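Summary for the lay section of the report: proteins are chains of building blocks that fold into shapes. Here we show the chain for amidase and then a coded description of the shape we predicted for it.
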Amino acid sequence: MTSPSTNRAAYPAESLDELAAKVAALTPAEHGFAYFDPLAPAAHPTIEGDLSGWIIPAKDLYEFAGMPTTFGSRARTIARSTETNSFIAAYQARGAAIPGKSVTSELGMTIDAEPRDLPALDNPIWPGRTPGGSSGGAAVMVARGLVRAAHASDAGGSIRIPSAACGVVGFKPASSQIAAHGFITRRVEDSAYLHQLTLGAPTPRRVGLLTTPLLAEVDVQPEWERATREAAEALAAAGHDVVEVGFWPAIAETFERYTDIFSYRLGDIPNPDYIAAWLRKRGLTVSAQRYAESLAYAATVRGRLRDFYGVDALLTPTVSSDPPAVGAFSQLEPAENFAAQTRWASWTSVFNIAGAPAISLPWPVPGRPQPAGVHLAGLTLDDAELLTLARELHE
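The coded shape description reads as follows.
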């Protein structure tokens, strides 16, 4: 296992008093908390473990006993949860303090941070623009320096997209499911530590550079394409075999299968609203047989990508452009909202249906303080191997 950074100056002090003072000085649109209580029992763990001294808020898409859960909607709010999500319970059992929960979009279905009938979040490095989502609150907290790490989850890019928008690190581990739990951090090594992974020595890899959007026809903003190409040059200079690759012809069927699975699972959602209602309506047209066939197809996607591209990892932009304005997605009709999301995030969900590990890393853009996000996904690499490669781009 890698060791967490001992350079305290690189991080906010993991002090509840200091965190509380910082949160009190910010508005709900700025701090990213859906709920914050520094006096909560979970904020003062009695368990000693490898995460003692870490403050790791939980994503408000999941229940945590003793705290409210909004699921990203005022109408869905549970005033006091009595159960705790198993992933959150696992890192709590390692000694982490959990003083609250981070803002998410409704049911985690959109890549903004605008819960229904609750305050929308602002981007700490792009004022007036979305911080991305659905783990937007987690990215805001880390980018603003409130915490070292925050719990997040990802079913289509929800860890990686807000990380790219806010200039931090977002790692989605490999998973046999479309969705995966993880963390948003400031350093690759901290992501490895949180996931209890050992990073090895750099090993030469074959990396495919893919700047062609997969899910939609959209022009990639020059700063984001240039950042990705510079990252490719850095990997080549480090001894990796970097080859430029192109469009994957199977993407249309793959995304259709992904949408089948995603929407079918909304069939039991009570009182769906807005985009949830639109997706649920689509899901009701998916038969149980089609759903089963789509799950079987999903199990082949990583192998299909590996066979087509012939590389160990793919390097892409995380998103196609700088973050859009707050409200840019939510003002749209559901179908157009969904289409707009695929134009902005035209790569990430492919690696959810593939079950592949993937990470977004900040890359400096000359002439401005905000970085772009570059994205690495492992086709033959496991979690630790991908993070070892990513560490070469972001120490």
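Put simply, here is one thing we learned. The CA atoms of residues 186 and 338 lie 29 Å apart.
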